[in-house]
Amino acid sequence: MIAALLLILAATAAPAAASGGWAPSPPPLTLAAGLDATADRLEGELAGGRLTFTGHVEITSGAQRLRAARVDLTLETPGHTLRRVVAKGAVQLIYGPYTATAEAADFDGASGRSTLTGKAKVWGAGREVAGERIDLDTRRRTVAVVAGHLLVPAEGANPAVRVVADTIEADDLRGVAHLRGKVEVVSGTRHLWGDDITVHTNANGTTVQRIDAVGGVRVVDGGRRGAAKEAHYDLLRHHLTLTGQARLAEGGNEIRGDAIHLDLQTRQVRVERGTIRYRPE
User: Fold this and answer.
1) Cβ neighbours of residue 36 under 8 Å, at least 6 residues apart?
2) Which residues make beta-bridge pairs with 245?
3) pLDDT tens, 1-17?
4) Residue 64: CB partners within 8 Å, gap ≥ 6?
5) What is the largest CA-CA distance in the chain?
6) What per-residue string of b and e applies to 67-76 under the rule 16 or more CB within 10 Å gives b?
7) What are the pLDDT digits (tens) for 134-161?
8) What is the C-alpha to C-alpha distance for residues 165 and 52, in angstroms, rounded to an integer?
9) d(Cα 265, Cα 13) in Å, to the nearest integer?
10) Which domains are assigned to the chain?
11) pTM of the predicted model, to two decimals?
12) Sign of CA dihedral 107, 27, 95, 159
């Protein structure tokens, strides 16, 4: 067992992103607190700016802890500022309130981008991102996920929102998440499916305000079932609009029309160019 203690007092590579929004904060990649590393084997040299740790690697720097089968560190010289960390094999990174796991991870301090691949997951502070691949961009405050899901925690009266899709692209600065392919959005007891769904948040990225769905839309809320070509769900006004061959059913009752407007609190319904079928219980 080789134990390496590298006292590298350097500036932080990049600040952590804000805690709001879809994207959890990427690791700050700082060596300001120095670095302790334990591994079966160590290669490279500090002067050359490259170090490779293999076998039961555990690296600690302040509150950050990284475990993996192999870790490659790239340092800027002079100054030894941490530029890049590439980890492979049962990767686990703990930093602040967050934990990240994956089969491989690439943290690029120079570009502010972090990529996790292979059963990737980042969670903490009520947020969660998981998928086969996760790309986080600190500077643009974006997250892209392949075959995975995102979770934004509840805030006040607004329930937590969980989205599942083949591809997810979220932009915290614009307050938008775009979901494609086998999409499902869950908000409290309500489930929404569609081919292409856009989720809009407030300026802080802490509250989902509106959800727009296009293509093969289905909605389930308790005993109510709806379907349409498009759906627009206003979470602030508790209002759902279904358009394009819209249909809404509950029990033996059914409404059909070009558009159906539903107040989810008062249960009032307004139909455009439609028909109503009522069957008393």
Assistant:
1) 4, 5, 6, 59, 60, 61
2) none
3) 322 222 222 222 233 33
4) 27, 28, 30, 93, 94, 95
5) 82
6) bbbbbbbbbb
7) 998 888 888 899 999 988 777 777 778 8
8) 36
9) 49
10) 1-123 (2.60.450.10), 154-281 (2.60.450.10)
11) 0.81
12) negative
Distance of CA 119 to the CA centre of its chain: 14
Going by C-alpha positions, the residue among 264, 261, 280 that lies closest to residue 272 is: 261
Residue linked to tokens 């937590």: 160
* Placement of tokens 């996920």 in the chain: 145
Bridge partner list, 161: 152, 187
Paired tokens of 174: 């614009």
Helical ranges in 89-198 per DSSP H: none
The position carrying tokens 């203690």 is 5
**Burial letters for 36-55: b for 16+ Cβ neighbours within 10 Å, e otherwise?**
ebbbeebeeeeeebebebbe
Q: Tally Cβ neighbours within 10 Å of residue 218.
A: 16
